[in-house]
Amino acid sequence: MCELCEHKRITEHKYEDDLCWVAKCSTHDLWMVVLRRHDSRPTRREMNHIVAVLNQLFDQGWKFRGYMSSTTDHWHDHIVEARDG
What we know:
Strand content: 15-25%
Number of helices: 2
CATH topology: HIT family, subunit A
Structural class: alpha+beta
Helix content: 10-25%
Shape: globular
Radius of gyration: 12 Å
Order of helices and strands: HEEEHEE
Strand order of the largest sheet: 1-2-3-5-4
């Protein structure tokens, strides 16, 4: 089974709802957002929701790192905050 679908709570969680969850990545020292639905691409509606959630959680200037690393068939991305570089 997919690690992201299992959603084991092994790190600090910042947010969770029916579409996504946000938690510290256990591999990288970054927050990550994960689409709950097992798919490699969020729909436009899902992405709009994710962006709205992240705008509430993070200071202005956050951005997606822009690529999925080890798990490539379940959409997730790491959040880079302005102060992180």
